[in-house]
Amino acid sequence: MRAVAKAWAATRAMPPREWLIRAVFVLAAIGLSMQRVVIAPGFELYFGPFFYLIAMRIWGVRLASLTLLCVMAPTLGWWGHPYSVLLAIGQIFVIQAIRRGRDGPVSVITLIYFLTIGLAVGMAVMLIAYGTSIEFALIQCLRKLLTEMLLAGAADMAILAIAIRRPFGRIDRISLSETVSVGTTLMVSVCLALYFFSQALNFSSDLMRERALLIESISNAQVNKHNGAAVSGPRYFAAATAARARSLALQSGQCTLFEDMQADAPNDQRTFAFWDKGCFVSRLTVPHTDAFVAVPVRETARAIVRRTLWGAVPLFALLAATQCLLIFFRRTLARALAQWRATVDRFGSEALEVPHDIAFTEFQQALKAFASANNAYAQSIHEREQSRRMLAKLQSEVDLQMLCDVGYDWTDNILRFTVIDPQNGPHSGSMAIHALDRDIFIGLIYRDPVMFEFRGGTDRTDDWHMLLAQDFDTEIQQWKSACIIRLRTAKAVRSKIQHNSRLMDLGGMASALGHELRQPIFTISLAAENGMMLLDDAELCRDDIRAKFTRIIEQVGRAQSIIQRTSHYSREHDADEVTLVRAIDNAVQFMRPLLEEHRIDIHVAQEDGVPDILVQKVGFEQIVVNALRNATDAIDQMRTIEPDAIAHIAIGTIVDGDDLLVRIADNGAGIDAQIAEEAFDAFATTKPANKGTGLGLFVCRQIIQEMGGSITLGPNRLERHGAILTVRLPLPAATQQRRNLSR
Amino acid sequence: MAGPINVLIVEDDAFLRCEMAEMFVRLGAQAFQAETIAEAVATASANQPHIIFCDYKLQAENGLDCLRHIDDLDFTPAPYKVLMTGHMELTGSSRNDIAELADELLAKPVPGMILRKLIDARRC
């Protein structure tokens, strides 16, 4: 009652449209449930299960129970027993127990229920209450099973149709696996139902055919009996009249229904009652004899039913196979869905991979597309993050100004431009250029695009900037667009590279230095031994001992100078300035062991009147050392072809206008003109992989540019082969003036 | 062996050459010094040496060439030739030449004890 009240309360709260739907449903349910359709003799269809199952799926078990009582009530009147009502109640409670209140198709549960409980109960009722044969009981139960299956399937399909059209009550989505299950099961059930339907339709004709054969057989038996032959065959009751034959059969208790009785009696040949208790009554076709027989139908009907049942076996096997396949399908689908969920849950992670063992191709394709899109997304997120970090780093490292109309005023040595300022609007600006970078700027005019480093200001040498400019207008001599980046760490990085390059020079010198140190050590050790022997000498002479110690001290000093020269060269920071001549000499001394080892003569010369300018000690020494090392390598290369060639390097210093030129020439393997142009680029090298880093000349150019000079490399025209490195340094202004005056 | 052992020292470093000569004299040998191959060949021709100590790298010459020239003098018995070097990275072909021309290769600095043993061995 509470359920009814609740349903009523819910019903009252419904909108008119729902009212209408429910009213139509109730009327249709009551109207159709009052009807039963005999689709074949003994094969009846009634619509009660269709409605209570729909009610079950839409409104739940309580309203389904109420509906069941209403729509199944007519069966009590039709068949006079509550068998169908009780099975229906069991059905909805089993569905409720399995579904646990969740909505879902009911046809598969109905199949299982009627194949187990329904079959057991039905067989028991038929065998015990009616005492019928097992074949009749079985075919009756199977017909019942099929009827219930069809109705449950129809209910599921109806719900499916509603769900596909629009949300309705609790049915707002459909399950793929259950839709497939319902569809497949329903199709096989329909096949089975059609089979049983056709068999039921043919049952009467089959029975009549069997009857004719049976009477003929009995007639033949009567003839044989008359002729004295042995008789075997079905049991029958023969008499002179049909009434007598019926009476005999009735007295035997085997027949209560006869086919020639009036139609108002329950002798319909299509009913189980007739199959069980009916008798055929017929005149025998024996010549010259007027006889009638009454033959029980039971055995003949059983034979026909048995054939029908055997004929259904392949279809039931198909139904079983279908269910097995559906179980496999559901499990596979569940696994594929779990893999799907696991993949989708990893949304946003990088390098997402699709499991290779996904059962369904459609899933795999969809997941592959998902993974591909996800990876692209993750990559874009990664790149965005990387860009963000780079931007942050760039902002922390550089001070960037966007410019336009950039021109160089060489008279004032000033760079003039218009600053593009998004906040305050464009405004003009300028930047003083360091005197040492003036020549570079002059050389850059007309070039497009340009990218180079320079120093700002007039006194500072560590205020480095990078200019990137393009679209040079030759008429007004300006670059239309440009940007200037203030370099905060470039100088430090450059210094580090230069230092590393020096350390690499040292590494290459290790062997030669080792040899150079072994000489004084050997001398010291022998001097010490000789000193010891002197001490043992009876005629000890102090002067000899003093000379020995003096020699030892000298040799220690020699070793010390070698070590000092080396360690000095390896220092990272040395801002000392020395004269150009001294710097060249230091570098030559440093390299002397290596040159000796490679049997290379070196000649240093200076033109008369060359001013001895000051240069950055470490930087310039590094340039000469690098040049000598490259020359040594080139000579080694040349000697692979000419092993006995005499090798030499010449270092000359001359004045060329306002510049001072230092030329380092060798007669090594030489260098190709095109390679010479690229030789000053970073990582450009022609040496074997383990010999050169490609940074030597790159560092040299940086050092020379800092000094305001330039450096070039080309072939040595004075020799058959070889190269010449030319360093051009601007003479100091005072020196230039003095020279100009003297001219 | 009758008489003192003649030792020829071929070394371009004058200080080292003098110290070696002084040690050999103190050990009772007769030491002769040479700075170049020409000097070495001349000295060897004049004073048939029993043992020669030769530097691998002379100022502008090669110690192996020096030993080759001395071999050409065909001394009997042949002097014991010791090559000394401070260069530890010798190529394969150099090692073959050394093995062919020198009886022993010593790495600088050579301990005094080794020099003594070499002289003593010649004395026996």
Q: Please state the oligomeric state of the protein chains shown.
A: heterodimer
Helix amount of chain B: 40-55%
Give the amount of beta strand of chain B, in percent.
15-25%
Based on secondary structure, the structural category of chain A is alpha+beta
Mean pLDDT of chain A: 79
Largest sheet of chain B: 5 strands, parallel
Largest sheet of chain A at a glance? 6 strands, antiparallel
* Separation of the first and last Cα atoms of chain A: 130 Å
Which overall shape of chain B is indicated by the principal axes computed on the Cα atoms?
Answer: globular
Distance between the termini of chain B: 7 Å
User: SS-based structural class of chain B?
Assistant: alpha/beta
| Largest interface (CB < 8 Å) | A-B, 22 and 21 residues
How many individual β-strands of chain A? 19
Q: Estimate percent helicity of chain A.
A: 55-70%
Strand order of the largest sheet of chain B: 2-1-3-4-5
Overall mean pLDDT of chain B? 88
Give the uncertain stretches of chain B in residue-range form.
Answer: none
